[in-house]
Amino acid sequence: MASLEILMPFRPRIPFRLSEPRAPQAVILGLNEIASAVAVAMHATGYAVVMSNDPEPPVIRRGMAFFDALYGDPVSVGGLTAVSAENTLAVRALALERQRVVVTDLDLMEIQTVGSIDVLIDARMQKHRVTPDLRHLAPVTVGLGPGFTVGHNCDLAIETKPGEEGRSFTSGGTKAADGISRRLGSLGRERFVYADASGIWRTALDVGARVFKGFPVGMIEGRIFEAPCDGILRGIARDGVVIRSGVKLIEIDPRGRAAQWTGTDERGTAIAEATVTAIARLRREQPGVAARLRLVKTDET
User: Which domain holds residue 242?
Assistant: First the structure.
């Protein structure tokens, strides 16, 4: 009887690859609406995008952000969807697919174990915290918002201050937070509600709900917070999150039918476009960066 080896057709051996060619990876710190606008732009440029959540400050403009995907909610921003990954194996597998933005509660140190990071973007918008130097963690690091100085804690800095958003820096840095809010309609800072207590936030409302001045929107440890004016909930912290005193809880859009609480607004678009343009410019002006990034597609190619 012929052996099984003789009966089986010959198949040449194919060398096993430890890693397949991959898209360059961008890790974005933060899940707010600015971070999400940048994620959409980076994905369109050819990157696999992983977003790391930071609970401070809480995300309130959730209709414009990928934040709720952390909880398994279906989320789409700019036509792009997101998927949650609970561990490093899931982050790796989903990032390799590059079909969706990957969101995770894993911190940066844990994400680093997945593989090399080509571009690291700090979009946490932590206005009053000391910003760490992240330059040694990726070939290109980008800082968005207050606290970033090129050559000190980032390679590129992007201004987010209302009225100056989208200005990019290859030297110097962004402006410090001044506490002045961008106006929507006739209202500025007065359209926000800030927490004056710490604890678990409870609310039955979501972004897009219409409220009236004085309407009870939610509570922290029995302390009730009311709508400061009539309008649409443009931002509200997710029910059940832990809140620290002093952070933004609620934002009202008073503009009636012109109110916006989903998608990406003009400010987010300007910052996102500035970010991808600055990275492309750095690549063009410093060829060594291009080799490290292994970019697969840009608007300039």
Answer: 189-254
